[in-house]
Each structure stands twice: as C-alpha cells, then as structure tokens.
Description:
Blueprint: E1 5-8, H1 19-23, H2 25-28, H3 32-53, H4 59-73, H5 79-89, H6 98-107, E2 111-116, H7 120-130, E3 138-141, H8 152-162, E4 169-173, H9 176-185, E5 188-192, E6 208-210
Parallel strand pairs: 1-2, 1-4, 2-3, 4-5, 5-6
Amino acid sequence: MPCTVFAFDAYGTLFDVHAAAARHRDEIGPQAQPLSDLWRTKQLEYTWIRTMTGTYRDFAAVTADALDFASARFGGISPATRANLLATYEKLDAFADVKACLAALMAKGLRTAILSNGTPAMLKAAVEAAGISGLLDATLSVDPLGFYKTRPEVYALVTSHFGVKPEAVSFQSSNRWDVAAGAKFGFRAVWINRTGQPDEYPDMAPAHVLPSLAPLAELDG
C-alpha cells in the first residue's frame, strides 16, 4: 500500500532540541552543550517513567523538570537564564530541510502531520515560529491521552485522525526508539539519522535510514 500520510516527530526531527542552549550559550557558559545533552536525556527519561508509573505531567512541566536537574548537575543557572531557556524552547529552530520537505509532500497531494509528546500550546508556538502552519494537515499531541510515546495508542492518533491503516502512514523520527515503536505499530518507519548514530533494535528495523529530510519526498510509496 502506498503511503498517503506522512507523520513527523517534532522534537529532534523537525525542531533542533539543542537550539535553546545554543542561543544562550554565553549565559550558561562552557557547560552549555553537556547541559543541553543531559536536559534532553532527562526530558525523555521522565516521559517514559511517568508513562510507566501512570503519573502524567505534561511535556512543558517535564521539560522544566529536566532542565532543573541538568542545570543543578552542572552547578546551577540563574532564574533569568532558566526563564530564557524555557521560553526559547517554545520557539526552537527548525532544521533547514523542513519547509522544503513538507512543501514537496503537499505538492504531491500527500497529507502531513506532527505526532509529538509536546503540548498543543508548545507545538502551536513552534510551528508558528517555524512558519510551517500551512504545510501541515494536523498537529497531534499526546496530551489528551495522558501518557507518552512509545504507547501504541499514541501512534494510533495518526490512523484515527486520518482514517487510514498503519501501513498507509510513513512515520519519520530522528529518535531510534521512536522509529522502533512506529515500526512495531505497523508504520513505514523512517529514521532521520542526522548525526550518523549506530543502529539499535534490529528486530524493529526502519524501512529507510536517511541523513536528512531532503530525500523523503522521493521515496517510493
């Protein structure tokens, strides 16, 4: 079955999760990149733990909690820097290939969507800041479910919204664990491996591995 819906993870795939720390590097100091790395690691860890324990806090709260841990680990940051980082996280830089990819897919008559852990408000702000509102048919958040990826119900948000079977969906993520879960659900899972990471989860392999979003529109359905 050809893919008629192209769903994208947001954070790390469309939006650069390290852009906030990069913009405020002078405020944070030389530990800016390791702080950003730990911030992201803890952010994801907290989503998994809260899903497993049934203690949901939305992605904005989880993101703030992860920043507090990461900043404490590296000696602390000022309240002003904390506020700046969290505000910037609402409007992260989109990767350079995002607009062209979405436009090419829509030009082919394909439907596009975001499927994300982010809250509706976070995603709305990021999409508007990136100028891609008109290139998306839907922005789907886990927030109404009260749990995070990798629960299969999250991936079912796409099939329910568009009224299609999983095999009609091409799902793109830079997160290998997300790709594994999408493949397990039945999507054509495409790993956007921007940084050349080694593969994981060989039993839940991606259909394609791409170095960026640029070649996506040229894949066979």
